[in-house]
Amino acid sequence: MTDHQSHSRGDHSREWFEEWFDHPLYLKVYHHRDEEEASRCVRTILSLTGLDQKQQPSHSVLDIACGAGRHALAFARAGLRVTANDLSPFLLDRARELAGTEGLMIEFSLQDMRTIHFEHRFDLVVQLFSSFGYFETDEEDHAIVANIASLLNPDGWYVLDLINPQHLQHHLVSRTDRNHGKLSIVEERSLSEHHVTKRITLHEENGKEHSFTESVRLYRPDEAIRLLESGGFSIERIVGDYDGGTFKAATSPRMMLVARIR
User: Fold this and answer.
1) 194 lies in which domain range?
2) pLDDT of 232-241, one tens digit each?
């Protein structure tokens, strides 16, 4: 395993994702995330892009917001050369630990996706499980897409996995109460025109309370297509789930855009 670190945007207060994703309780709240689901997602991506063919040297992939490494590890198990990037040292440490346990060779990178830079290029960049739309302005999202285009080899692929907003509107659960061990977890969700927001309140056994807020920009299909096309991509396919099912605006839980650099 190798490491690459470049994280400097000047002095600023921590944004919600910097604070929450780097908190030790984050993985307790999301302990239920499914490894098998991540493997299915990776298999679908490799099939749709044609990168599942056994070639030497193996294809390179950048997981630009890898979190604790579910998808990055699955790509590495499939034989790709993987770079796993995130802004959270805590989550990167977890991904590094898991890779070491399996003996997987992964390059780890600690960079903000808005300013991410490498000297080499990739055959595939992925942004999975709602890891897009965290920022205050649409201009930042456009800048990210344009930057991703610059990270790709000619004819390289970009896979962007978004929430399908129409499905979310009909299936949003406004509040859930649950426990993980002795940790009490309350999640309250709300929708606005362009965002889904979740307020998370945690109560530890010792009486400590923590509160965090997540906010993700929602893109309609036409908006997502225009976003990627403005960055120099052509949309090859949109699928509605991690098995590669046809995207249906009314019923598909996901909106995974499979795009290629023009």
Assistant:
1) 169-213
2) 999 999 999 9
